[in-house]
């Protein structure tokens, strides 16, 4: 589903953030051997989350997260999980880069970010950028770890 019908409607974007915060998707760790995990904590917010992913044959099969986090962090990580599950590592990396460009007010493609477009104005509050990117940084680390393991 594209986001062009609501990406310029502030009330809809705010509702998306609140919905993902109150009812986060993939918000329970599986803790299985087939998953890799990474712990992330912020020094400027309450964000303290663990993100896990199951990656096989170059594809992200599942992502989950758990921990204490603010509304922006929780919503962003929930949206990221929805967006990246089922993507190849290369597709996921392109989406992560696109998202990071958006929150750092750089050129980006809004058509590929689905509901994560709700965070397009985070750059206006610099202290919230780390909140919006903590889950994305975690999955990026897991993808890097997967690449390192694949090279061994």
Element pattern in H and E: HEEEHHH
Approximate strand percentage: 15-25%
Structural class: alpha+beta
Please tally the helical runs, counting DSSP H or I stretches of 4 or more residues.
4
Portion in helices: 40-55%
Strand ordering within the main sheet: 1-2-3
- Count of DSSP E strands? 3
- Write down the overall mean pLDDT: 95
Low-confidence stretches: none
Please give the oligomerization state of what you see: single chain
Brief description of this entry?
By secondary structure, the chain is α+β, with helices and mostly antiparallel strands. 45% of the residues lie in helices and 16% in strands.
What does this structure look like?
Strands 1-2-3 form a three-stranded antiparallel beta sheet, with helices on one face. It is built from four helices and three strands, in the order H-E-E-E-H-H-H. Helix content is 45%, strand content 16%. A hairpin with a 2-residue loop joins strand 2 and strand 3. The protein is globular. The chain is an alpha+beta fold and 152 residues long.
Give descriptors for this structure.
152 residues; alpha+beta
What topology does this entry show?
Elements: H1 10-22, E1 36-41, E2 48-56, E3 59-68, H2 71-84, H3 89-103, H4 126-151
Antiparallel strand pairs: 1-2, 2-3
Helix pairs in contact: 1-2, 2-4, 3-4
């Amino acid at each position: 589903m594209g986001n062009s019908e609501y990406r310029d409607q502030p009330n809809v974007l705010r509702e998306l953030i609140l919905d993902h915060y109150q009812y986060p998707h993939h918000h329970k760790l599986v803790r299985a051997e087939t998953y890799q995990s990474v712990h992330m904590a912020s020094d400027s917010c309450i964000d303290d989350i663990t993100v896990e992913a199951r990656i096989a044959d170059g594809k992200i099969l599942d992502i989950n997260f758990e921990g204490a986090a603010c509304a922006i962090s929780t919503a962003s990580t929930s949206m990221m999980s929805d967006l990246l599950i089922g993507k190849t590592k290369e597709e996921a990396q392109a989406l992560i880069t696109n998202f990071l460009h958006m929150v750092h007010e750089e050129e980006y493609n809004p058509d590929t970010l689905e509901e994560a477009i709700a965070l397009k104005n985070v750059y206006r509050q610099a202290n919230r950028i780390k909140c919006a990117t903590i889950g994305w940084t975690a999955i990026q680390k897991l993808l890097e770890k997967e690449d390192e393991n694949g090279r061994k």
